[in-house]
Each structure stands twice: as C-alpha cells, then as structure tokens.
Amino acid sequence: MALVLALLTASGLLVVAGPGSAEAASCAGRKVRTLPFSTGRVDVYKRSGYVCAVTVAKKRGASRWMSVSVQARGSRPVLREGKRKERIGTGAVHAGRRCVWVKGAVSNGSTSSGWILC
C-alpha cells in the first residue's frame, strides 16, 4: 500500500483534498488559453494530452460560489464546484487530441468556451 501511495504521489496523480487545498489549486503544463468574464477568469493548461482548468475570482474576499469543468469530446465533464475565496481547479483530464469544452463561474458571472484546442 505504501508503495502505491508513493508512486501516485511521485507521478502527480494523487490530489490531497484538505482545508485550503482548493485555494491553492493549480495545474501542471503550459497555459494555452484564458477565458475572461465579469467576475473572474478561467485559465486552461495543457500537458502531454492532458487538460486542466482553474477558475480564478477577479477579487479575493469572502467565500463565494465557484465552479470549473473540463469535458473532452465524447467523455463526461469533470466538474468541481463549491464555496471558495479565490480559485478552484479541476484535476488533469485526458483529452489526447480531442477537443475540450471548458466552463467556469464565480458568483453570478460565468463563461463557456465551446469546443477548443482541437
């Protein structure tokens, strides 16, 4: 069991969800797109066929409803939502060479990309 845990941690596939972990949400890879909207933005990252997204609030402050999702064409969306102060991110989603659809929201503002990164 310890060996499996060590391998998952080393490969970056283990996401530790604890208090404040969503506040420090980040993605590996290079930023390939920024989708701005009235109350924040969604940063989209890509690395070796995997796509990840982070919704960032325009202003840091009290906790508010935030969400982010990434969907590879032909797959179900990976959604993360909840009350956060600054940011919320998805884990890496395997897209390969498929298009992805990214959505994000902060309070009453939101964005939706349509099919991108094809």
Automatic annotation (TrEMBL):
Residues 1-24 form the signal peptide. Keywords: Signal. It comes from the Bacteria. This is Secreted protein. It comes from Streptomyces acidicola.
